[in-house]
Design brief:
This protein is an alpha/beta fold. It is built from ten helices and ten strands. A six-stranded mixed beta sheet has the order 6-7-8-3-9-10, sandwiched between helices. It has a four-stranded antiparallel beta sheet with strand order 2-1-4-5, with helices on one face. A hairpin with a 2-residue loop joins strand 4 and strand 5. The protein is globular, with a radius of gyration of 18 Å.
Length: 247
């Protein structure tokens, strides 16, 4: 699903330049959009600015020019703590974020730690268990004793607790074995098919990231390089040579 001229994208990044230190932008004039119900993947070499794009969207890097819009509302430089509550935008970080000595169930509860309605929390946990039966079977297990793939599933499940409209996933395959990576991407595709989950992901594994996506963007040196349907990028000789290791 791709937004048409009469359909407003759910997320829009318009001519955004951003960075962390005064006078030093990491990304320059970035344009990007995600339609509701789409999976979009951002690829590029190390140091291209992929993570900075996410941080600029989520209010973790300063946007110095341009705008970030969510469902038409300007959220440029939103406070990170407001991203989920105001824009209904969740993030799954690259580095492991589970609390290892807490159970799966307790980790999920933390996804709604500000929710006073305990019945609502239980309802959302049951919803996540329905999506990830493996987590339901391990609900009383300490998260740190699970495999890397199971921990990633838990992070994704926790991100869904507040019913986000879009989830940002930073390197969902990071640190995972190839077979587990395939399982994680299949879970993302399944969530997209079954509940219409909208996803914007950064992925160093360019081939698998694009294969799991509807559209993609390529960043080089902090700027847009290529963009288009994921299948077209996978077939593009320049993209294949430079980013997929295929000649």
């Amino acid at each position: 699903m791709v937004a048409t001229a009469t359909e407003r994208p759910l997320l829009e990044v318009r001519d955004v330049s951003a960075g962390y230190y005064a006078g030093h932008d990491v990304i320059h004039n970035i344009d990007l959009e995600v339609a509701e119900g789409e999976i979009v993947c951002v690829i590029g070499p190390n140091g291209a600015g992929k993570s900075t794009v996410f941080r600029a969207i989520y209010g973790l890097a300063e946007v110095r020019s341009g705008r970030v819009l969510c469902d038409g509302v300007d959220i440029t430089n939103i406070a990170p703590q407001d991203a989920l509550r105001t824009a209904r935008m969740a993030m799954v970080p690259q580095l492991r974020s589970v609390f290892p000595q807490m159970t799966v169930h307790e980790n999920l509860e933390l996804g709604m730690y500000l929710e006073p309605d305990r019945a609502r929390v239980r309802e959302r946990i049951d919803y996540v268990y329905g999506l990830f039966p493996r987590l339901a079977r391990r609900s009383r297990q300490e998260a740190g004793t699970m495999s890397g793939g199971e921990q990633r599933m838990l992070e994704i499940g926790r991100s869904l607790m507040h019913e986000p409209r879009i989830v940002l996933m930073d390197e969902p395959s990071a640190g995972l074995a190839p077979i587990v990576t395939r399982q994680v991407f299949e879970a993302i595709r399944q969530l997209n098919r079954e509940i219409g989950l909208t996803v914007l992901m950064i992925e160093q594994n360019a081939r698998q990231g694009l294969e799991a996506s509807h559209r993609g963007y390529v960043l080089e040196m902090g700027r847009n390089s290529h963009q288009g349907p994921a299948g077209d990028l996978l077939a593009d000789p320049e993209v294949r040579r430079a980013f997929l290791g295929i000649r």
